[in-house]
Amino acid sequence: MIPTRQFHVFLIFCGLNILLPACSPQEQLNHKQSDNQNAASPTSAAGDEERVDVLFYIEGQLCQHLRKIYQDKSGVLWLGTNVYGLLNYDGDSLSYLKDIEGIAEGRITGIREDNKGNVWFSSSGGMTKFDGSTFTNFREDEGRFNNEIWSFVIDKSGTFWLGTHEGVRLFDGESYTDFPIPKGQVRDTTSIISYDRVSSVLADSKGNMWFGTDGFGICKWNGVGFTNFTTDNGLCDNNIGDLFEDSSGNIWISTSYGGMCMFDGKSFRNFATEGLIDGVEAGAIYEDKRGNIWFAVEHHGVYKYDGESFVNYNEKDGLNTSGVLSIYQDREDRFWFGGWGGLFRFDGETFTSVTKDGPWER
Fold first, then answer.
1. Whole domain around residue 201: which residue ranges?
2. Hey, what's the torsion of the CAs at 144, 146, 147, 148, to 10 degrees?
3. Is the overall model pTM greater than 0.90, yes or no?
4. I need a labelling partner for 224 at 20 to 30 A (CA). Which of 9, 85, 215, 358 fits?
């Protein structure tokens, strides 16, 4: 029998690399690419040369593994996947943007828009910028840094804070610099993927930066000094999945082995040990427009917390997935959930699997 923690590592790497060679080709998509290798449109590349990309699907799904969902200011819905690159829905049509020049290869781990209207994507191949017509990839080719980025935020000053395979880095839109952080003092220094990996980055409303690590708890930077939080301080686990600040200023922490925690600035609550939720491997966190907190727990669907009680949604409600990685409510109040099995839409009561044909609109 494989030990629990070792088995967890095995599952993560299977998920990251999508070891599913049995998928069969279902569709061929045409992309037109110009002679300018840096230019591309979000819906198709401009030019005369036509290239056919063969994509592999599990029947009835947009993709096998959807990691990120984001709507930009123009209303375009962006979807980041593990192996199919980027997808977007512009209100009329769905487009697959795999292998377009300028988009980094590998899984998409973050999507955000800057104050100039550029949409940025983090991935296992560095940072990619879309300026409305052209994709440009920024990576370190000199071998000084690992290009694998797990998360990123843009703070109020416009600085990019990146959680990477080898710690925290700052990005100014063109180049990278290291931002060393201290590790928390822990008894067990076993990491899931990388000893120096920073899995999640949060810029809170007070100007603090929070960094979730792979086995060393949380590190907080207040602009002057660092504070570390580990299980010795009440944190439910030292392997951090995601960090999120709600509208009341509470910090929500999903972990790999300790479930979901909430930090009110003074102490931690562990909802799993309190018996309020099931499961120990928590994932995506989100606050909807009504102030409800949503979060995912592996093999237990998603939970909604209204400030007083929890409601669990799972397969019985149409959420046919063992793992949700992204939760997002767009400006049209469409509520999306992504993860294993692709994309799901929630109507307030039940979940519907979204195919290439939708449902997209109301």
1. 4-354
2. -170
3. no
4. 215
